[in-house]
Specification:
Strand 1 and strand 2 form a beta hairpin. Helix 1 runs antiparallel to helix 4 and helix 5 packs antiparallel against helix 6. The chain has 224 residues and is an all-alpha fold. Helix content is 82%, strand content 2%. It is rod-shaped. It has six helices and two strands. The chain has a two-stranded antiparallel sheet with strand order 1-2.
């Protein structure tokens, strides 16, 4: 009888101990879950802030690109103007202002610190909303493509146009030193290339802004 009572007491103590351990683990898990949810909300807020900055910058760049396209279009039309071949001063003025448009490139640098932190820390898994994850990756994929477009254009400038421009233009006085430059095939092709690239980048920025707006709406719903 005494033995049975001792066993019962031991079982009771073990049960209490097991319950205590379970409760401690449950509380630890709840606290960790609460911390993860709080951290997730902080990340989402930071992402939303980054995207607002990106939106503003892309909108400014888009406006400048549209102005650049108007300038390039005007200069491309000037190639067919009779004065371009008969009036050296007209050709020189056209070439100089056209060169300015070609060389004037508006760079976009995204605010990607938060996403890099998410990836490098392994916290990307904290974002539970799969739609947000998918859209966020799509937006940053667009950023990568925009960067490649920028690099391709710069390569064209560095390898072909800038050397021609430096050889042909007195930069300090903004005067054309080589009267043949406006008529070179390379110069005209670079104007066409700039027009094509700028048009492509304009269209891609517009699509990227649409993706950002969609993601911002999803982030707002999540934060609510």
């Amino acid at each position: 009888m005494l033995f049975s009572s001792s066993v019962a007491g031991t079982v009771k103590e073990l049960a209490i101990l097991a319950f205590g351990i379970y409760l401690a683990l449950w509380m630890e898990n709840e606290v960790q879950t609460w911390k993860d949810h709080r951290k997730e909300s902080e990340y989402i807020s930071l992402i939303a802030a980054d995207l607002r900055t990106d939106q503003k910058e892309l909108a400014i760049i888009l406006s400048r690109i549209e102005q650049k396209l108007q300038t390039l279009e005007t200069h491309l039309l000037a190639f067919s103007d009779p004065r371009y071949t008969t009036d050296p001063e007209f050709a020189a003025a056209t070439a100089l202002s056209g060169s300015d448009a070609v060389n004037n490139y508006h760079f976009f640098s995204p605010q990607d610190f938060t996403l890099l932190s998410l990836r490098e820390s392994g916290d990307f898994k904290l974002i539970r909303n799969q739609e947000i994850k998918s859209q966020l990756l799509a937006v940053h994929k667009s950023y990568d493509i925009l960067n490649r477009l920028q690099q391709n254009y710069l390569q064209g400038l560095d390898e072909e146009f800038i050397p021609l421009w430096i050889r042909s233009v007195d930069v300090m006085n903004s005067t054309l030193q080589d009267p043949q430059m406006p008529h070179l095939v390379l110069f005209k092709n670079m104007m066409v290339f700039a027009m094509s690239e700028t048009t492509q980048r304009k269209q891609f920025i517009e699509r990227t802004l649409t993706r950002i707006e969609k993601l911002q709406a999803e982030l707002s719903r999540e934060l609510q």
